[in-house]
Amino acid sequence: MADLLNVEHVRRTFPRGSGDELLVLDDVNLTLREGEIVGLLGRSGSGKSTLLRLIAGLARPQGGTLTYLGAPIEGPARGVAMVFQSFALFPWLTVLENVQLGLEAQGLPLQDIRTRSLAAIDLIGLDGYESAYPRELSGGMRQRVGFARAMVVHPNILLMDEPFSALDVLTAENLRTDLIELWDKRQLPIKGIILVTHNIEEAVQMCDRVLMFSSNPGRVASELKIDLPQPRDRTSPAFEDYVDRIYVEMTARRVERLRAAQMVGPQGIGMPLTHVSPNQISGLIEALAAPPYGGKADLPDVAYEQELEVDELFPVAEAMQLLRLAEVEGGDIKLTHMGKRFADAELNERKEIFSRALQSYVPLAAHIKKVLDERASHSAPRARFLDELEDHMAEDAAEETLKTVVSWARFSELFSYNDDAEVFSLENPT
Ligand code: ADP
Ligand code: MG
To answer: What is the pTM of this model?
Structure first.
């Protein structure tokens, strides 16, 4: 099959306040062939939306090349359309007008615009809603308008940026199923689809190939071909096997990254932390300690049973691993001895366990504690630590890392933080 799109060695950076650059995409390679749905799976912030914008010609890379039907992408290309998570409809236009908008830029006769728009509306199951306004529609129907507006131009490539993630579970499932059915019967006026998602099941359900994205910088870390006929049965062993393989792949890489990060920096404080609350950690520990798990579980099972997305589950699992309350290996998560004690303990003992873990395994927490211990005032301004962190990571990562340590320290009463004064101190206000 012919290549619709080639992305080769693409690199994208953004200027940072400090004058240097944030490397978001590095050496990204991918190909989209005719007839394919390719999934991009990665955690938030890994650069997926940035890559879609490059493909859509809305931004330019600092390095590498993007080619669409053999020609370099140098600006918004006709034949590449995008569907967004947020629907992006105009509230003052009707469904029909919103859809027609997609075609008006092309200078077709009015009658053609109307005919094609009505056909797209019909195809995507919006028949009868032509004159409704977006506010009159449910989230699912609004996103159908988003699809119709993208399809009305008969694009060669449809780019979808987490198009189902703002919808409730059933609505999302309906829309996915409808879309796949239309695609499978070749009723969509589209030649290839790139689907960005952080939902592993969604990727396995819809895609012919799944590219797993790594973070910092974003890069295609591995690829998996999903060799199952459509429509796919989510409960079949083969389907679950693909889901498990992706979990294993993604956790293995994250654990590796975490181990590497724990060794970064002279005092190890340069380890970025994803914000996870002590409540989320306690919650997952309690769930794992209880039946049916008894201390050990398959990550996909936990995600499913706790109704968590990968993006929500991984950071919690990662935090537990960092604090040595659990071990993540392959696709499994297993409570450590300390994790089991935590599960059985009363609140005060939990705080003690947490406090010890913070001081032993989170260099930033130990560092802040030490500074506070050494100062006569036993206090220090937030800016002092933020500046220090920004030597190691981007501004937003530094903010998030500090916020995480604050919430962990508060829970364990290792030190306290006054939000109004932006001051850390050893005193615990009661
Ligand atoms: P994803 O879609 O995978 O969640 P994004 O592509 O939205 O990730 O963002 C990747 C990284 O690039 C983030 O750290 C984000 O802050 C940064 N970023 C994205 N767009 C810009 C921009 N216009 N200016 C500066 N930084 C940006
Ligand atoms: Mg995004």
So the answer is: 0.75
